[in-house]
Amino acid sequence: MLRALLTAIAMALSLLSAPVLARSKQRIAVVASHDSPLGAMSAVQVRHYFLGEDGESANGERIVVIDQDRDAPIAVQFYNAVAGMTMRDISIYWAKKVFSGLGTPPLRIKGGDAAVKEWLKSKPHAIGYISAASADASVKTLLVIKP
Amino acid sequence: MIPTRRRHLGLAFLLVLGFMACALSVQADDLMWNGFLTTGTAFSNRATPYIDGIAKEPALASQSHLGLNLAKDVSPSVRVAAQLLIREDEADAAVKADWAFVSFRIADRLHLTLGKQKVPMWIASAYVDVGAAYPWARPPEEVYSLFNLKSFNGTSFRYEQPIGSSVLVIEPYGGETFVETQPSQPTADSKLTGRNLFGASVDWTWGVTTLRASYNRALWTLNLGDGIQLGERHMIIRSFGFSTELSDFFLMAEYGETIDLDENKFLSKSSKLATDAAVAAAAGDKVAAATLAGQSALLGLRVGGARGQYVTVGRKFDEFTVHITGASLQHLVTPGVTQDQRSAALGTSYDLSNDSVLKLEAKRIFIPHGGVGLFKSAVWTSELDDAMIYSINYNLIF
Description:
heterodimer, A: alpha/beta, five-stranded mixed β-sheet, B: alpha+beta, Porin, 16-stranded antiparallel β-barrel, globular, disordered N terminus
């Protein structure tokens, strides 16, 4: 009886929360400024940097990470690709770290890809992510994440 | 009335401050501000008050609080961080430091932290006030209320050792602590003082699975207020925890227990005082007999020997999360009176956004005859049998 009731509740909730829109996906480039000394990165390294699990490059340089607006579709796709996490998961993840005093989330920049590229210009040890289609001569591509 | 008004004014002030910080995106390269609001109501279907001030009349849960967190990396190896907290159940509106410390990276994987810190006792100890960070409306009180120890002033080390694809985190610490047992009505003797406090926690995490164990030992001076003084006792608190996820399902389980190393000494004193009381009563000295009997009863209260555990199983459905939690507490307080209880909770939460969540939870509590569970009652009454606790919470991170 209880099992049937829980199953019914679960099914009802599942139907209520079913995604109604499919989002188009794109290739994402993890980038640094064009004159950055940083080299190619693996998806695991990128995950470590963006989740605050590591803050230094292989050469011991401190990596600064910048994030896009959490409501941006590219952010949703990025975190799903590198960490298998939803933006709600990311929010909880950082809440646990921040309110434990164990870390701070990446600086978030509004203004999309253009703002990220502009911000990276003066910071050779900073990384961010943009649409691969937006990657131009002003940035160095460290990793391409395919849809 | 005035303290209540001040409290609400303080809460409102911090609420406004928090939303201002949120709206203005107070965030710079080197100084980070974050905050959280955990609020809601909880009520029972019984007249006898439950733990945390939960009563029949719905009221702001005592877990309602607002926190502001700020951190600054002074250098690549030095971080200063603090968390300010205002709680609904405090006697005044003063903003208090939940924790405040300076942390030094003294080696590649080793950090030294000095200051007021959270005790790493349970899975959610470090963020127990941040409702948005866990699935329950309130952490299971059968475990999280086992002993009123949340923070300490002192030193800790944090060492992280990768082992294959897993990470082992070892966190030894030491210091002292002061715990107010009656936050809403503090008195000179409503303090728990823990000295020579030391302990360690070990977390082993691989992927989404974590195993943890914690040990804490201290010399406690137990003044519970209202003249209840239980003397100085060496206490041990230890715990074990496990959490994992599989697809959309998650599982959490914790066990904790308290051990009073001086229990036999106090029980012996209690027994002797009871004998003295009987002698005084036989001699017709009723006043002395009553005094001695009262002292005997106090010293006979068992502080240790409490064991609590819970298991939570849940599933995420996009914005919804549903969980079922079974918990139990066993604690023989004095012959004939226990805090034993079992409970089953069904909770659901709905993500209003990435940073805010609404939670509903219904908890059924079973108390055996002779027990009072976590109700504020001296003896069992039929009213305590089969009680319900309902919680509605709103949690926000900003």
